[in-house]
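[Automated response] Your request has been received and processed.

Submitted sequence:
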Amino acid sequence: MNHLAHVVLAGPDTGPRLGAFLGDHVKGRAALESLPADWALGVIVHRRVDTLSDLPPAVLELLAELPSPWRRYGGIMLDVLFDHMLTRHWDRFGPAPLSQLAGEIDELLARYQADLPLRLRRFSQWAANKRLWQRYGERAMLEEIFSLLAWRHGRRWPLEAGARLLDSHEAVIERAFLSMFPDLQAQIGAERERLYSTWSIM
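Generated structure:
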């Protein structure tokens, strides 16, 4: 899952949503203990999402079908394309109108700018300037995202061409997302409630 799905799965509260963004930047248990408890909860949920989203048979079958060299980077590319599918089916899965949630995300990241790791701070500024959250459904935005991923990973091919997977695999990607995401949303929702009841918040 990529950023937008992580925010949706983190739930409506500020701390876990912020932790959802920190999940890619905080490593190990010791780092968790240095965070506010509700931020740490968001990081834990982020990690569970990453684990569970790789396991559904529909996702494994889709990855297995990708030809080389797509298969090696398929997980990275599907994370982005699943956010694309999430916006396509936002009326079913979104917790609020997308424009509203986009404003909430940008405001949240701006409010805590000083507390964010440098890379996340830069990403949040870029995302706000590009109106990323409203534009995951646009092909041009996908191509820009994949271009940045290629630069960050030092792998121009095939990452830079990740949006082309929609040209040849759009239907199967959409089916995999629709098979996986409802179950993931239900499972993470239940785990989130359990964590809230056992984790000391505030």
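Summary generated for your ticket: The radius of gyration is 16 Å. Residues 3-198 form one domain.
If you did not submit this request, please reply to this message.
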